[in-house]
Design brief:
Number of helices: 1
Largest sheet: 4 strands, antiparallel
Protein name: Beta-1,3-N-Acetylglucosaminyltransferase family protein
Shape: elongated
Signal peptide: 1-22
CATH class: Mainly Beta
Order of helices and strands: HEEEEEEE
Number of domains: 1
Oligomer: single chain
Structural class: mainly beta
Pfam families: TPD1_C (PF24068)
Mean pLDDT: 86
Strand content: 35-45%
Distance between the termini: 37 Å
Keywords: Signal
Low-confidence stretches: 4-19
């Protein structure tokens, strides 16, 4: 009986070690904050958007809701590319675990970006 219990404990601990880094992550693990940079572009305040991936895995093909998003500041399409009501971030490339991805735009008020899609890449 003790041998069986020891085996069960070993299997359980191994599953925690192997599966511990593959926590289920979603686009909700992408935290978005914004702040004014202090710069003005065409008489509109510039905003810095910071997307933080707090998932232990990379997230790629990140898309934000951006219906009605406007800016007077050019944003390189490899950084933020609008298609319909969604914006593709970083050309679909990964946002790595515990790192930030930043971009700037200029408009009268901050825009409420929300993550709507991502693919999780755990290895």
């Amino acid at each position: 009986m003790a041998t069986t219990m020891n085996l069960v404990c070993v299997v359980f601990l191994c599953s925690l070690i192997v599966g511990g880094n593959c926590q289920p992550c979603t686009e909700q693990n992408l935290k978005i904050t914004q702040s004014k940079t202090g710069k003005m572009v065409q008489n509109k305040p510039e905003w810095n958007v910071k997307i933080t991936n707090d998932c232990p895995c990379s997230q790629l093909d990140v898309k934000l809701s951006c219906d009605a998003f406007q800016t007077v500041e050019d944003i390189d399409s490899s950084i933020l590319s609008k298609s319909g009501s969604e914006c593709l971030v970083n050309n679909g490339q990964p946002i790595y675990p515990n790192t930030d991805f930043n971009f700037n735009y200029a408009w009268d008020n901050s825009f409420s970006f929300k993550p709507v899609h991502s693919q999780v890449g755990c290895s």
